[in-house]
Design goal:
The protein has one domain: CNF1/YfiH-like putative cysteine hydrolases (4-Layer Sandwich). A hairpin with a 5-residue loop joins strand 11 (155-157) and strand 12. It has 6 helices and 14 strands. It is an alpha/beta fold and 216 residues long.
């Protein structure tokens, strides 16, 4: 089962170029990827969500989530290793930038609640490429913080046996806790994938994007 009929989502990769905010030529690359007015965000690992009431509204806002029920408004988050998340309802869509600090802050339920205010009925979600446990060694204190926020399913091990964070499991738990009916996961590790930018792998400041919108 895919997203609702009018919902659209696209995940970029390295072949689409650097989509980090402020990267040279980024406006041209955005339009080449999705030729609609973009609402892109200055992300701060918080729980602020903007409501987009016309295409392009709140572009450059300081937030980690955006929602809309407006046709033709492209909502975007930029990620290296954090999880890009899209939430879909029958007539609205939302996006979230979910790193471990965002999980603790509550960005996922904040986006779900904002989408629910715009559309009735069941919700679905999809998690895009992000760092996965074999590549995500994590300190015990920070791991305890995330587990306290979303549950012990985030506890994992790296390929070398060290404590790790399962970021996608944390997102799934947060979505389920917020009442999302279905969650799909592309199951791609940004650190392992040569097709994706990764700050943890090589210190890159380049970013890929998740873009979601409602079609007519």
């Amino acid at each position: 089962m895919g997203p609702p009929e009018r919902a659209r989502v696209r995940f970029s990769d390295c072949s689409d170029g650097d989509l980090a905010a402020g990267a040279p030529g980024v406006d041209r690359r955005r339009q080449r990827l999705v030729d609609l007015p973009w609402t892109w965000l200055r992300q701060v690992h918080g729980r602020e969500v903007v409501v987009v009431d016309h295409p392009g509204a709140h572009a450059g806002a300081t937030a980690d989530g955006a929602v809309t029920s407006v046709t033709g408004a492209a909502l975007a988050v930029q990620v290296g290793d954090c999880a890009p998340v899209a939430v879909f309802g029958a007539s609205a869509v939302g996006v979230a930038h979910a790193g471990w600090r965002g999980l603790v802050a509550g960005i996922v339920p904040a986006v779900v609640e904002a989408v629910r205010r715009l559309t009735p009925g069941p919700l679905q979600a999809v998690i895009g490429p992000c760092v996965r446990p074999p590549c995500y060694a994590f300190g015990p204190d920070e791991l305890d913080q995330v587990a306290s926020a979303v549950g012990d399913t985030v506890r994992a091990r790296t390929s070398a046996g060290a404590p790790a964070l399962d970021l996608a499991a944390g997102v799934r738990a947060a979505l389920a806790g917020a009442g999302v009916d279905r969650c799909d996961d592309v199951a791609i590790c940004t650190v392992c994938s040569p097709r994706h930018w990764s700050h943890r792998r090589d210190g890159s400041v380049a970013r890929q994007s998740l873009v979601a919108w409602m079609a007519p």
